[in-house]
Amino acid sequence: MSYISLPESKELDFVAIGRLCIDLNANEIHRPMEETMTFTKYVGGSPANITIGMSRFGLKTAFIGKIANDQMGRFIADYLRRNRIELTNVVTDRTGAVTGLAFTEIKSPTDCSILMYRDNAADLQLTPGEVQEELIAKTKVLLISGTALAKSPSREAVFQALNYAKKHGAVIAFDLDYRPYTWTSPEETAVYYNLAAEKCDIILGTREEFDMMETFEHNPEHSDQVTAGKWFDYSAKIVIIKHGKDGSIAYTQDGADHRAKSFPAKVVKTFGAGDSYAAGFLFGVMQGWTLEKSMEFGSAAACIVISSHSCSDAMPTAAEVHDYIERCNRGEITAS
Ligand SMILES: Nc1ncnc2c1ncn2[C@@H]1O[C@H](COP(=O)(O)OP(=O)(O)O)[C@@H](O)[C@H]1O
Ligand SMILES: O=C(O)C[C@@H](O)[C@H](O)C(=O)COP(=O)(O)O
């Protein structure tokens, strides 16, 4: 059964709007960042990572965002270009804003944290007027990412992109991507996340991210069914609730739920799981696969990325994901 109806005859498969930043992942791992002396630089930002993943799967992609007018901004643009991502709507900031930095601390495979430097971040300077309607008009899917709602004018740019997507029939996916350090309060976050989510066809988030969205609601048991059920009264066709190593559950308008286990992985860092899962799942849905197969594909893609030092660089090809699934099914990969 297909829960999503993709528009036909579009030039692009996938467009995302939001954060373009730099990941600086500690090279000296299994120790606190106070003891780290060197980092490896990667392109980062959840929507950027997801778009890179979709491009690695062979889809025709583009990005809507703003980069700093400096070496980091040019590094990001060059990397997206090398990954065949259309940049016509990646705008260079002229206000002196800087590139957001995400320092990743890897104390252990299960104890990782991110230190984000996002003061005066260029990505939050994107204005509604800079969002190109013609780009959104030619895509099958538009992805929005929650952190882009954190400050104006980026907030208004996202809502304008949503208006264009609705007008031109694009399927809208919302990766909740909640990063507390970019917001002033959970209350503010909940208000804007809920306003955006009402317009979205596919919503992906962790239990904790949905709990934040329910700040003003009553769901004391943190019931996934209660959470998902609310969104089918709006535009949602699929609500994905991720539970880390315990897997993920997809809820659909017909009242069904679809469950996926996680695969074993030799975890280097837990970051990157959500972005690669989102890329794999959305790719599967766009191929017309069942939700179970799409969730399995996303889960395997996540394992490949969390078994790697990077996020964007480690985004796998479809062949690599299929191979990972087969190797797991042959018992060749065990968790560590
Ligand atoms: N330790 C792990 N081992 C194997 N798979 C994992 C692990 N952590 C996450 N995953 C996979 O990645 C998916 C998303 O991870 P999760 O941590 O829930 O989201 P996020 O990274 O957005 O917080 C999970 O549903 C699961 O399939
Ligand atoms: O999104 C960011 O600004 C940081 C990301 O680039 C980083 O790779 C990360 O945290 C990935 O997020 P996740 O996939 O939700 O774990």
UniProtKB/TrEMBL annotation:
Origin superkingdom: Bacteria
InterPro entries: Carboh/pur_kinase_PfkB_CS (IPR002173), DKG_kinase_firmi (IPR022841), Myo_inos_IolC (IPR030830), Myo_inos_IolC-like_sf (IPR023314), PfkB_Carbo_kinase (IPR050306), PfkB_dom (IPR011611), Ribokinase-like (IPR029056)
Reaction(s) catalysed by this chain's protein: 5-dehydro-2-deoxy-D-gluconate + ATP = 6-phospho-5-dehydro-2-deoxy-D-gluconate + ADP + H(+)
Segments forming domain Carbohydrate kinase PfkB: 15-317
Gene3D superfamilies tied to this protein: 3.40.1190.20, putative 5-dehydro-2- deoxygluconokinase (2.20.150.10)
Enzyme Commission number(s) of this protein: 2.7.1.92
Keyword Repeat in record: no
Cited NCBIfam families: myo_inos_iolC_N (TIGR04382)
Similarity annotation: Belongs to the carbohydrate kinase PfkB family.
Function per UniProt: Catalyzes the phosphorylation of 5-dehydro-2-deoxy-D-gluconate (2-deoxy-5-keto-D-gluconate or DKG) to 6-phospho-5-dehydro-2-deoxy-D-gluconate (DKGP).
The protein's name: 5-dehydro-2-deoxygluconokinase
Taxonomic lineage: Bacteria, Bacillati, Bacillota, Bacilli, Bacillales
Gene that specifies this protein: iolC
